[in-house]
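Lab notebook: predicted structure, single chain.

Context: the supervisor wants predicted structures on file for every construct in the current expression panel, including those that have not yet been purified. This is the next one on the list. No modifications to the sequence; it matches the entry in the shared construct table.
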Amino acid sequence: MAKKKSLKHIAVAGNIGAGKTTLTSLLAKHYKWTPQFEAIEHNPYLVDFYEDMHRWSFNLQVYFLNTRLKALEEIRAGKKTVIQDRTIYEDAYIFAPNLHDMGLMNKRDFENYSSFFNTLAKMVQPPDLLIYLKASIPKLVDQIQKRGREYEENIRLDYLKRLNEYYNKWIDKYDSGPLLIIDIENLDFTENDEDLAEVVRRIDAEVNGLF
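Prediction complete. Output recorded below exactly as produced.
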């Protein structure tokens, strides 16, 4: 009899403002999972990037790629079940191509980055469950404004729209493992316990059917 596979790595994906960090925290508390967050405060490129995207886009994406690869190594080497805020795939399939298409990352840098990611991707094990938070642009803008991060004040609306398009294309083709799409348009799991309970119910149903 084959050994039952354990749930080791859950990842939460979604556009800027979708609520990834909040949901990661809430689910970690509920399931007693270990949360792993983006190190936003310690990112040496993020502020510069929002001020001059063309100059700093390649540097930022390589930094993210490196930190996320390290995070994946830690998850697989550890013994705990980890829920991760954002995935390594989002950098490669959403942010970098979007920057290139917008003229904010030149062709040479984009091809270099893509080649580097494709090499690393062969070494990466996908999450046991990917949770995608789907949201409209008005919903994202509303949530970004609510949290009031200073460096996000200069995010352009067309930038958010293009990211959303790339997210939807990626999710439509995602076949690396189990996927749970949660439409957050009419959900507020931050303030509403019933909405959080609905998310948990859907995760329970997905997890119980995984293995």
